[in-house]
Automatic annotation (TrEMBL):
The keyword Metal-binding does not apply. GO terms for molecular function: oxidoreductase activity, acting on the CH-OH group of donors, NAD or NADP as acceptor. This is NAD(P)-dependent dehydrogenase (Short-subunit alcohol dehydrogenase family). Pfam families: adh_short (PF00106), adh_short_C2 (PF13561). Belongs to the short-chain dehydrogenases/reductases (SDR) family. It comes from Pseudonocardia sediminis. InterPro entries: NAD(P)-bd_dom_sf (IPR036291), SDR_fam (IPR002347). PANTHER family: 3-OXOACYL-[ACYL-CARRIER-PROTEIN] REDUCTASE FABG, SHORT-CHAIN DEHYDROGENASES/REDUCTASES FAMILY MEMBER. Gene3D superfamilies: NAD(P)-binding Rossmann-like Domain. It comes from the Bacteria.
C-alpha cells in the first residue's frame, strides 16, 4: 500500500538514499529542500530551514495528510553557528510542529541526529531551557543570550536528541510516533566539512577503528525501519548507527573522541 512521505534534505547524502528507497517501494514522496532532488519524486517543494518564512510557505503548499516525515536535512559545523542551530534544530522544530497535524494516525516522524550529540545528559537542563522557547525567533534569541561551549553542531544534535524524547509522548497522543537515528561519520559530500570542524585525525581514527565510514545506505535502512509498521511500539528512542563506535566508548574500551 502506497504511503505519502515527506523528506527534508532529499537532494543529497542520506536524504537522497532515503528518498530513493521510498520511491523504489512505490511510495509517494514530497521532497523539501533548497535543491531539486536527483530522484524523481511526486513533488518537490522549495524549503529553506534557516528561514521561518520559507518554512511557512512550504507548509502552506502541502496538501492532505501524510504518513511519514523524515527530517534528514542538516548543515555541518563549518557553517556559521546561527545557521547550524537554525537548520539542525529550530527550523526542523518549526516544520515538524507545523505539519504534525497533517500526519495520519499511526504515522511516524524520524529525525536524523548524530553521535556528535552524545553529550546531551551533561547539558540536559540547558537544552530544556532552549526547547522551552515557543518560536524559531525566541529560540534564536535564547541562543544569542546563552552561548555554548564547543561546536554548535554538537549542541544542536544534543538538543535534537532531547527534543525527540520530550515531544514523542506529546505527538503520541495523536497517534504519531517520533524517533531519531544517530549516525557516526558518513561518507557523503560534506564529510570534508566534518573533517574540518571535528578534526580529520579524529575521524580517520574512527574509520580505522571500525574499518570504514558509514555509507548513506547504512543509515537509510534504520530510518526506513523507524518510519514503518515494524517499529510501531518504538517511540521517543534514539537509535545509534555507528558501526560500534559508541559501544566501544560506553564500555570504556576506547576514550570518547574529541569532537
Amino acid at each position: 500500500m502506497s504511503r505519502r512521505i515527506l523528506v527534508t534534505g532529499a537532494a543529497s547524502g542520506i536524504g537522497d538514499e532515503v528518498t530513493r528507497r521510498f520511491v523504489d517501494a512505490g511510495d509517494e514522496v514530497t521532497s523539501l529542500d533548497l535543491k531539486d532532488p536527483s530522484v524523481t519524486v511526486a513533488r518537490h517543494v522549495h524549503c529553506d530551514l534557516s528561514d521561518p518564512a520559507s518554512i511557512e510557505q512550504a507548509v502552506a503548499a502541502l496538501d492532505g495528510t501524510y504518513d511519514v516525515l523524515c527530517n534528514v536535512a542538516g548543515v555541518p559545523g563549518t557553517a556559521p553557528s546561527e545557521v547550524v542551530l537554525k537548520v539542525n534544530l529550530l527550523g526542523l522544530r518549526q516544520l515538524t510542529e507545523s505539519v504534525v497535524e497533517q500526519i495520519a494516525e499511526g504515522g511516524a516522524i524520524v529525525n536524523v541526529a548524530s553521535i556528535a550529540g552524545f553529550g546531551w545528559p551533561k547539558r540536559l537542563d540547558t537544552i530544556r531551557e532552549l526547547l522551552a522557547t515557543d518560536t524559531f525567533d525566541e529560540g534564536l534569541a535564547w541562543f544569542a543570550e546563552n552561548p555554548q561551549e564547543g561546536n554548535t553542531y554538537n549542541f544542536a544534535k544534543e538538543a535534537l536528541t532531547v527534543y525527540t524524547m520530550l515531544m514523542a509522548p506529546v505527538f503520541w497522543e495523536s497517534g504519531v510516533r517520533m524517533n531519531a537515528v544517530s549516525p557516526g561519520p558518513v561518507d557523503t559530500p560534506i564529510l570534508t566539512d566534518f573533517e574540518e570542524s571535528m578534526g580529520k585525525e579524529t575521524l580517520d581514527a574512527l574509520s580505522t577503528f571500525i574499518g570504514r565510514h558509514a555509507t548513506p545506505a547504512d543509515i537509510a535502512g534504520p530510518v526506513l525501519f523507524l518510519a514503518g509498521p515494524d517499529s510501531g511500539w518504538i517511540n521517543g528512542h534514539n537509535i545509534v548507527v555507528d558501526g560500534g563506535i559508541s559501544g566501544a566508548v560506553n564500555s570504556g574500551m576506547v576514550p570518547p573522541p574529541e569532537i
